[in-house]
């Protein structure tokens, strides 16, 4: 029995009823995976990450305080999840033939088991990340809160299922996160200007542009076309056993996707400005 006086099976029944009313039919099935992943990342944040950081960086990590320590600990979790989710998502994008062969109706209403598993692994982190961004919004800023809310909204609605086929390819954006977190770590280690920092910076710039600007824009173009098809769908277009996706949800999906992509453009602009100042501004001034 939990603190509310309910037995575990009663709590589960209430949750399943709530998911049914919210049309999140797949969420109860994959909830255990979400909880396990969420707990694993929080354990990394609270214990595993700090212990390994102290072991490998004994002259730096124990001296971090305040925001610098928070940034470091969050980056450890972020880097871990980026490596994990990129590995899983790449496998699905490359080898999940059923997903590759989907028509527009299947991309809107369908799903495959590999895609659902990848989404579940990712959502464990996204829920954790949302809590962290809201809790420390004064540190990370409101754009990061908006990003976390938009991602969580899109990925949770994948369990209707709705547009789940777009989840695995969108997780490939996280390859740029790997270099971003390494860049932040090198900055904490005061390694700015070193060869490894410059090489990582180039990789960050290239991966961010190719994945979050070029590839993301291409992927969103397909997403908007499928979203429009779902909006205009006749009853004959809707697969048997599926319900029409409500207009408010389609509009919310469009708003969340636009928000995410505008943030990508904004962050790429900031990265470009930083690269320009570091490598070109001084030379121009010298002339």
Would you write up a description of this structure?
This protein is mainly α. The chain has one domain (24-274). The protein is built from twelve helices and no strands. It has helices at 8-21, 27-56, 66-95, 97-100, 104-109, 113-135, 137-140, 142-156, 167-171, 174-188, 195-232, 247-286. The longest helix has 40 residues, at 247-286. The mean pLDDT is 90.
> In this structure, how is the largest beta sheet organized?
none
| Strand percentage | under 5%
> Strand-and-helix sequence, N→C?
HHHHHHHHHHHH
Distance between the termini: 74 Å
**Percentage of helical residues?**
over 70%
Report the mean per-residue pLDDT as an integer. Answer: 90
Draw up the topology in text:
Elements: H1 8-21, H2 27-56, H3 66-95, H4 97-100, H5 104-109, H6 113-135, H7 137-140, H8 142-156, H9 167-171, H10 174-188, H11 195-232, H12 247-286
GO cellular component, one term: membrane
Domain TLC: 67-280
Main location: membrane
Give the gist of this structure.
The chain is an all-alpha fold. 78% of the residues lie in helices and 0% in strands. α2 (27-56) packs across α3 (66-95) and α2 crosses α6 (113-135).
Record keyword descriptors for this entry:
mainly alpha, 12 helices, 287 residues, 78% helix, 0% strand
């Amino acid at each position: 029995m939990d603190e509310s006086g309910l037995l575990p099976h009663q709590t589960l029944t209430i949750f399943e009823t709530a998911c049914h009313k919210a049309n999140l039919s797949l969420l109860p099935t994959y909830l255990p995976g979400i909880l396990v992943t969420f707990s694993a990342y929080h354990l990394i944040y609270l214990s595993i990450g700090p212990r390994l950081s102290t072991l490998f960086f004994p002259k730096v990590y124990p001296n971090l305080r305040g925001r610098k320590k928070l940034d470091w600990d969050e980056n450890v979790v972020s880097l871990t999840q980026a490596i994990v989710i990129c590995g899983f998502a790449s496998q699905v994008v490359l080898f999940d033939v059923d997903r590759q062969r989907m028509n527009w109706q299947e991309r809107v209403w369908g799903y495959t088991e590999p895609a659902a598993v990848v989404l579940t692994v990712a959502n464990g982190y996204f829920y954790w990340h949302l809590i962290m961004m809201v809790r420390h919004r004064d540190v990370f800023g409101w754009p990061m809160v908006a990003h976390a809310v938009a991602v969580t909204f899109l990925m949770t609605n994948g369990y209707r299922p709705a547009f789940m086929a777009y989840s695995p390819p969108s997780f490939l954006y996280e390859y740029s996160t790997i270099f971003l977190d390494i860049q932040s770590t090198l900055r904490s280690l005061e390694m700015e200007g070193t060869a490894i920092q410059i090489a990582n910076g180039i990789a960050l710039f290239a991966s961010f542009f190719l994945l979050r600007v070029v590839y993301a824009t291409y992927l969103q173009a397909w997403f908007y076309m499928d979203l429009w098809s779902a909006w205009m769908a006749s009853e004959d277009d809707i697969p048997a056993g599926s319900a029409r996706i409500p207009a408010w949800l389609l509009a919310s999906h469009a708003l969340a996707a636009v928000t995410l992509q505008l943030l990508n453009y904004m962050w790429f602009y900031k990265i470009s400005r930083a690269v320009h100042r570091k490598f070109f501004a001084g030379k121009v001034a010298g002339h």
